[in-house]
Amino acid sequence: MSSPIEALILDLVEWVARAPRRYRDVIAVWGTSCPRLTVWEDTVELGWVATEGRTDGEIWVIASPAGREALRQAGRLRDVA
What we know:
Arc Repressor Mutant, subunit A; 3 strands; alpha+beta; three-stranded antiparallel β-sheet
């Protein structure tokens, strides 16, 4: 990955890999209406994050195995729990 958007995608995956995040928090931080800055949408399309419902009624975002592999290949997994 070498473009600015690709770096941002890895930032998002790394952020949720450190700890699951509430969907509403992820969208507040990473959601955008700009058609040229589609970090959240691109990350979902790549399959690098997943959502899961929990007993607290919230939807949570986690790094998928493919997302963790992308972090590993980029040399960024070492910073993640």
